[in-house]
Amino acid sequence: MRPDAAPAQGNPLGTAPLGGLIRKFAIPSIIGMLVGAAYNITDQIFIGQVVGLLGNAATNVVFPLISLSIALAQMTGVGTAANFNLSLGARREDRARAFIGTGLTLTLIFGLGITLVVLLLETPILLLCGATETVLPYAQDYLGIVVYGLFFQVFTMAAGTIIRADRSPSYAMFSSVIGAVLNVFLDWLFLYPLGWGIRGAAAATVISQGISFLVCLAYFPRFKAFSLSRKDLRLRPEVIPAILKLGVSNFLNHLVMMLVNIAMNNTLTRYGALSIYGSDIPLAVSGVVAKVNMIMVSFAVGLAHGCQPILSFNMGAKNYPRVKATYRKAVAVGLVFSFCAFFLFQCFPRQIISIFGSGDPLYFEFAEDYLRIFMFMVCLFSIQPLSVNYFTSIGAVKQGIFLSVSRQGFLLLPLLAILPRFLGLDGVLYAGPAADLMAVILSLAMIRRSFRRLTALEKEAKETESLPL
Questions:
Q1: What are the residues whose beta carbons fall under 8 Å from the beta carbon of 459, sequence distance 6 or more?
Q2: HEC sequence for 358-385
Q3: Distance CA 398, CA 406 (A)
Q4: CA distances from 445 to 306, 386, 426, 429, 449 (A)
Q5: Please, which residues have CB within 8 angstroms of residue 421's CB and are 6 or more apart in sequence?
Q6: Which of 325, 261, 337 has the alpha carbon at shortest distance from 298?
Q7: CA-based nearest residue to 261, from 436, 421, 66, 75
Q8: Who contacts 52 (Cβ-Cβ below 8 Å, separation ≥6)?
Q9: Whole-prediction pTM value?
């Protein structure tokens, strides 16, 4: 029987045709991730159009904190969802219940924690993230309001992953879409008719995230797999390590992205000051390209999250051919999107940059080079995040952790430290595609080794079944 064939009965995660199943889970997941990214992208567009270059630079300085909140949400959301589906695949409902309750409570704790830390250390954090003297006041105005939405963001993103794992991808998508649509309207209202400037964009984000939070919260009394009560939400110390274990690779991936963002901001301002562009233009352009890159990240991570329930369930059910087939189909989909993005970035860089506001000729000159060069390997971008999610979903924690930090930590950070010493500001641009290419090669090598292991397990299982009783 082919791995994507559909027997007449059984859990659809283990029996339905893979093409339709991936579409069912991945499309809402991708939309949900894109909508989540839309908060920052929409703010960047309105701020760039109304406030200008310094506003774009300010949002870039705040962005590492957004990455940190996403990292926390990924750790509890993916860790909880993967363990939940693995437990259901192994028919252990009591353990699945423990994961859901503990995961939700951990998410609330982490959301409150990051909010308190940022409130106490706002200005030192902004200076650490690369704020220049001219950018700092704008960054303080923006973060001073956005900080109150970090709690909502952490919970909504983690809850969305858990809701998808409960076979409700459309609801998870709706919870994100309703907030994003409201954010666009409020951005327009607060920045144009009311003229609140960068603070208006921040207020629009917080209000919209609060609405999405309430929508997600309303789902859990109607959880599909089993009924949840308040007593289920108590922390169970025995399952916390398992949640963190399967979620840590995604956490580290986004944590290292945060560190890279900080390093890049400081490198751009340092070497930019020695160039004709100055410090603020590279900082602003980096913020714009980071938001464009969020579209790529959102698609790849959304596709990966959509495949997570399928991978985890079938790994738990020991349906190894279906695990491999799911990864292959996901990569094929990801490559189609990646090549389309490559074409757009190479052919229309100025038009893309112009969406985020205007600037002088030097601004557009640097922005076009930055987008074309730094995003050159976007054609293969989806392979690494899909591979990270593959290892996390099947419980291969060490491989997931190693691969999740490889592109940003082991490759990009050293290149950012080395190449600018020889190439100046251009070294930052070329560090991106060099790290991407090496990360793809590493990912495929590790996937090939994992597939060989699954093939051996499949052969071993068949031999065991053929033994006479």
A1: none
A2: CCCHHHHHHHHHHHHHHCHHHHHCCHHH
A3: 12
A4: 23, 14, 30, 26, 6
A5: 427
A6: 337
A7: 66
A8: 357, 358, 359
A9: 0.75
* Encoded tokens for 128: 């650490």
If you ran DSSP here, which 8-state letter would residue 406 be given? I
Phi/psi-derived region of residue 246, left when phi > 0, alpha when psi is between -120 and 50, beta in every other case? alpha
For the chain, the maximum distance between any two Cα atoms, rounded to a whole number of angstroms, is 80
Tokens found for residue 88? 């259901």
Calculate helix-pair angle for 53-89, 383-393, nearest 10 degrees: 30
- How far is Cα 410 from Cα 246, in angstroms, rounded to an integer? 21
DSSP category for residue 334: H
Residue 76 CA to residue 109 CA, distance in Å, equals 10
From first to last of its 469 residues, what are the pLDDT tens digits of the chain? 444 444 434 677 777 888 888 888 888 778 877 876 777 788 888 888 888 888 888 988 998 998 899 899 989 998 999 888 888 877 888 888 889 989 999 999 999 999 999 999 999 999 999 888 899 999 999 999 999 999 999 999 999 989 988 888 888 888 888 988 899 899 999 999 999 999 999 999 999 999 999 999 999 988 887 888 888 888 888 889 999 988 887 788 788 888 888 998 999 999 998 899 988 899 888 888 888 888 888 888 888 878 888 888 888 888 888 899 999 999 999 999 999 999 999 999 999 999 888 778 898 999 999 999 999 999 998 899 899 889 988 888 788 888 888 888 889 999 999 999 999 999 999 999 999 999 999 999 999 999 999 888 888 877 776 655 5
> Within 279-319, where are the H helices?
280-316
- Rounding to the nearest 10 degrees, give the CA dihedral for residues 300, 301, 305, 310: 30
Burial zone of 434 (CB within 10 Å; 0-12 exposed, 13-18 middle, 19+ buried): middle
Question: Which H helix or E strand runs over 73?
Answer: helix 53-89
Q: What's the sign of the alpha-carbon dihedral 107, 112, 115, 121?
A: negative
The total of other beta-carbon atoms located within 10 Å of residue 41's CB is 23
